[in-house]
Amino acid sequence: MPLRGSSPLVRPAGSGRADGAGTKQGGGGGPATRTASRGARAERLAPYVLVAPAVLILVTLRLWPLVLGVNYSFTGDGADNGTPVGLGNYLELAGDPLFRTALRNVGLLVLLLPVAVAIPGLLATFIYLRVPGHRVYRGVYFFPAVLSPVIVGAIVNLMLGFDGPVNAALGTVGVGPVDWLGDPGIAMFTVTGVHVWATFGMALVVFLAGFSTLDASLLDAARVDGASLGQVVRHVIIPGLTRTIQFVFVTTLIGMLTSMFGLLFVMTSGGPEGSTYLPEYYIWHQQGQLNRPALASAASTVLFVVMLVVGLAQITLLRRAGRQD
Q1: Fewer CB near the terminus (10 Å): N or C of the chain?
Q2: Domain tally for the chain?
Q3: Which residue stretches of the chain have pLDDT < 50?
Q4: SS3 string of the chain?
Q5: 161: in domain
């Protein structure tokens, strides 16, 4: 029975705090909860906001022109400009001996690609293992990458001329002069070799960056076990640089198929007898010399498909090789 003068509504101690807590929970959260929710939402959206400008540039300057080029490849040239011709341009490409030569040269580049990747990979290995003079070698190997293809082509033309210093040096050992740029059976190998020499500096930098992620304890363990250099490369370095090797393979192939125009233009101009034609040079010839943009668009589409298929095939093979190791 309540005391006289006291309120009959007196609550037990702590009941106010319990009610307050219940009210706060039932009210849907306070300012701190709403702030945390907004922060989490902003954190989820931040990657998309940061990537959006790059995606917009890629779509505007790459994907949309690609779609327009594929669409344009199904139209005609000259009097049939803008008129749909179906697969007419692609059928013409299939019957053009110059384009078939260009595709054969693409196959040759694919076969030579492992050599083009192995050279900077081995040089990066020697630099990483700190062979005597590795600091000097690093600068010397990268120097050709900063030269313009036009300059490289002009210098090589002087050196590989029929009466040039290279043939003069060969003559001193009894080897007759070689027509490095005039023989259809040799010219493509010559241009490819010059391109590999002039561009492998970038691949060398990528390999050195990959070596920085390699676990040095594995190399130390291999040395303690008495492994030879070949065994270290096969069982330690290659498995540890699988992703780097995949990247270098793809970028080197793209460079071979899309960045040799300068050398081809200066050194051979597609000759002799069209033996050094590549799809990019064929595209320029059709567009810039013969004013046939629709046929050039069809050749560009074929080049894109070839690069995509070969690149995906290389990545698949390298991944399988990495799993087996």
Answers
A1: N
A2: 1
A3: 1-27
A4: CCCCCCCCCCCCCCHHHHHHHHHHHHCCCCHHHHHHHHHHHHHHHHHHHHHHHHHHHHHHHHHHHHHHHHHHCCEECHHHECCECCCHHHHHHHHCHHHHHHHHHHHHHHHHHHHHHHHHHHHHHHHHCCCCCHHHHHHHHHHHHHCCHHHHHHHHHHHCCCCCHHHHHHHCCCCCCCCCCCCCCCHHHHHHHHHHHHHHHHHHHHHHHHHCCCCHHHHHHHHHCCCCHHHHHHHHHHHHCHHHHHHHHHHHHHHHHHCCHHHHHHHCCCCCCCCCCCHHHHHHHHHHHCCCHHHHHHHHHHHHHHHHHHHHHHHHHHHHHHHHC
A5: yes
